[in-house]
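quick one before i forget lol
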Amino acid sequence: MRKRLCRLLLVGVAFSSAALALLASPASASTAGSVATPSLPGNGFHYVQCQASPSGSAFPHGATTGFPPPTCGNSFAWGFTVSGSPTGQAQWDSHFLGNWSCTAYAWIPDSHSNDPNAQYYIWDGSRYLANDAFVNQEGTTNGWVNVTNNTYFQVSDHMRITLNDHNPKGQSGWYIAAYAMDFACNPG
């Protein structure tokens, strides 16, 4: 709990100058296809959840990278896409309650991430909001990519993002990574 609170303080209002510079800097050649998470006006904040919570057998493997997202460790979960029903999912939960307007960014690592159709699902607690953002994980390396189709959703419970191993195009065998998620929210 103390570790999570410290991470929230670091990534939230009290950014260290190094973390702020990394999050606010523009994408470089080494992060082709990625976007820097934008700074937020007023009382907005970022909350980074460094590890997904997997369930089922969708993300059974682990890997490390030399380029982790700011404030996170270098290990992440990955699996292969399936053409049929999903075998499990990864989940990220913002853990904050209240009336917020939120979007989210996934960190795509430099390995075990080439699914051209990774489909992220957006939730307000247990209420489904959308799943129209198909992310080309191969098109981003060591960078943040928006998983909400650049939409801010009104969240009254808590924002939750899920990713399963089902490929919506029915293609199996792609690598799919589940690493860090950055929740970016403004007061609703």
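fyi The longest helix spans residues 2-11.
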